[in-house]
Structures are given as structure tokens and as C-alpha cells.
Design a protein that fits this description.
Blueprint: H1 3-8, H2 28-63, H3 68-102, E1 108-111, E2 116-119
Antiparallel strand pairs: 1-2
């Protein structure tokens, strides 16, 4: 298995357009599952970015040395990072609701080490 196959293992559902290779034929549920996996990956990246922004803002606070402009700028950075993450989580909630409504899934088993997302 090459590096690209390993990277795609948790994102791309196991199916085949023709049903060849012993895999089931791709359906609309597999498409929704792919979008859901991509969104979850985006949520993960957004979380990492928020943590990095909060750390960077902490450095800005420490290096402000009482300068009101720099303190305000650092505070706005933390606020904007948190507001952005709330927007991303709201988007996830909408996508999660849509995927659950339009598929036969009653829930999701999310395990990135054992094939990613599995419909229950």
C-alpha cells in the first residue's frame, strides 16, 4: 500500500463504481459518507488552527508589554479564532443532520484507526 492509499483510507469509502474487486457498488450513501469524512477532516484542521491561534495570541499578550493596541489586537485574535470555530462547528452540525436524514444511518461509528466512518 503506498502513501496515497494510506492517506485516503479514512476519507474514501470502500466501494467500486462497477462493483468489481469484491467491493460493493457505490451508492449515494457512499457519496454522503465521503463528504462527511471530508467535513470531519476539516473540523480536525479547524481545531488545530484554533489551538495554534490561541497559542499565538498568548505570545502576543506576553510580548505586548502593556501596550493597549497590542493587547487589544491579541484579544481580538482569540475572539476571532473562537468565533470561527463556532461557525465551523455549526456547519458540521448542519452537514451531520443532512447526512443522517438522507441516509439509512441511525448513527455513526467514527474510528480513524479502523477505516474512518462507519454507518450503524
Amino acid at each position: 500500500m503506498n502513501l496515497i492509499q494510506i492517506a485516503q483510507a479514512a476519507l474514501v469509502p470502500e466501494c467500486s463504481p462497477t462493483g468489481a474487486g469484491g467491493l460493493e457498488k457505490c451508492t449515494t450513501e457512499h457519496l454522503f459518507e465521503l463528504f462527511y469524512n471530508i467535513f470531519n477532516f476539516g473540523i480536525f484542521l479547524a481545531g488545530v488552527i484554533v489551538v495554534l491561534m490561541v497559542i499565538w495570541s498568548g505570545f502576543q499578550f506576553m510580548l505586548a508589554q502593556g501596550n493597549p493596541y497590542k493587547l487589544e489586537k491579541a484579544g481580538k485574535s482569540v475572539f476571532n479564532a473562537i468565533v470561527g470555530f463556532v461557525i465551523v462547528l455549526s456547519a458540521w452540525l448542519i452537514v451531520n443532520t443532512i447526512v443522517t436524514v438522507f441516509t439509512d444511518c441511525t448513527g455513526w461509528n467514527i474510528n480513524p484507526f479502523a477505516g474512518g466512518l462507519n454507518c450503524l
